[in-house]
Amino acid sequence: MEYDNDRLRKRRPKMETFYWVMLILLQPVTNWILSPFRWLWPFLLMASLLVFPAYILFSRFMGSALATRKRRSLPILISIASFVVIGGFLLCVYSLFGKIAGAPMNGFFAMTPTHLLREGWWTAVNMALSVAIFYIRKADDEKDLLEAMKKDNTFFKLRYLRAQLNPHFLFNTLNSIYSLSLQKSDRTPDIVIRLADIMRYLIYECNEEKIPLDKEIEFIRNYIEIEKLRHKADIRLTVEGQTEGLLIEPFLFISFIENGFKHAMDHSFGEPFIYITLRVGNGQLVLNVINSTDADLELQAKKLNGMGIAHSRSLLELLYPSSYDLDIIQTERDETRTSELRLHNARERLESLYPDSHTLDVILNKSTFTVSLILKTFAAC
């Protein structure tokens, strides 16, 4: 690719160049193989090179004329005029070669019906091939244009989804500050500072397609610190593995974490908890969110269709259509009395996601809402 006045300019595809070279060589090589006058092929090659620009011009004009449906006679007129001009030019070139090479050349290119028929045939073949090459190039350009449009479409979808996610997140945080201000809490200034850090991240640091994973983790930490100031709960964030030098799309995780706090804190029993683990290793990036809840399974299932989760699913489908796993598992304290089969199936899935026995015991013995997101491919700086 090249740039011309900041406009991307595509280089000529190698296959198109190959086709034009084949057009130049077609008549000389065929004559060298089939004709008894093999010694003439250098003259034919030279003539083919001299007339080559005319075929390029013909392909461009003919392609434009065929695209114009209003004047259907225009392609016919261009074809006839080009055939006459190219044929006449070749006859002049061959006449000049005949004077240079002498009698043998004059004998081969004598103005006989056979000679005129042969040259007319090759001119028509080359004209047809030049138009075919034009359409090959056009199809290639249209394919590139379609890919660019798909890429732009994905980009604007991502922008739209992120634009919806940001106000949703800020609305929840402002509600937190409002709640503490009503209580005249001494923790309000600290939350405002945390919110300022988050706003700086949202406005200045996450406008790129990908950002460093460490910045996203810092953003998550600020959000969690705000929630810690609001709630009395067992809130834990664990980061495992080497995160430095990795890139990730912004806002991939926050809706799942927000959802965890919404479930954990929106209940009446006294020991809410939320455990968040971000693990990097084996070419994967894994987010696990485990939170307490007192909602029954039916209500939990309805919350899966919330705006935050729906947006994050859409982002994952756009960014990682075939390289992510999202597993959401709901458990209930009284599930052993209602569905032994469901508990068995949940245990099998959970054991593969949470090999730690303590975490698994917490999940299976309490009403929990568990989210496990696995990204199988992610970029490095």
What is the architecture of the largest domain at the second tier of CATH?
2-Layer Sandwich
Beta strand %: 5-15%
CATH homologous superfamily label of the largest domain: Histidine kinase-like ATPase, C-terminal domain
Order of helices and strands: EEHHHHHHEHEEHEEHHEHHHEE
What is the CATH class designation of the largest domain?
A: Alpha Beta
Uncertain regions spanning at least 5 consecutive residues:
1-9
Rg estimate, integer Å: 36 Å
Summarize model confidence as the mean pLDDT.
76
Q: How helix-rich are the residues, as a percent range?
A: 55-70%
First-residue to last-residue Cα separation: 23 Å
> What structural class results from the helix and strand content?
alpha+beta
Total of helices = 13
Q: Could you say which overall geometry the principal axes of the C-alpha atoms support? A: rod-shaped
The CATH topology name of the largest domain reads Heat Shock Protein 90
What does this structure look like?
This protein has two domains: 2-148, no CATH class; 231-380, 2-Layer Sandwich (Heat Shock Protein 90). Helix 3 crosses helix 5, helix 5 packs antiparallel against helix 6 and helix 8 (254-265) runs antiparallel to helix 10. The chain is rod-shaped and about 110 Å long. The chain has helices at 14-34, 41-67, 74-101, 103-108, 113-182, 188-205, 213-230, 254-265, 297-303, 307-319, 335-338, 340-353, 357-365; strands spanning 2-4, 7-9, 211-212, 234-240, 246-248, 273-281, 284-292, 324-331, 368-375, 379-380. With 381 residues, it is of the alpha+beta class.
